[in-house]
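Write out structure tokens for AlpA family transcriptional regulator.
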Amino acid sequence: MQPKTKLPSRVLRLQEVLDLLSISKSYHFAKLDKNSKSYDPTYPKPISVGERSVRYVEQEVIDWVNARKEERNAS
């Protein structure tokens, strides 16, 4: 039996995430920094794809945006 290979639909580079969300690089890293007042534990985390390379799962970024929209609409 072959092992199942499950790949995300698409992985994004940092610049693609910044463009998709229309945010700055510093704000992006603040969302990931536990010591920042802008920290968001629900913000999509990077995945390592190499020694000095990370990517972001596109669907996780989209899901995060949709959750923000739902929060807004629930208010």
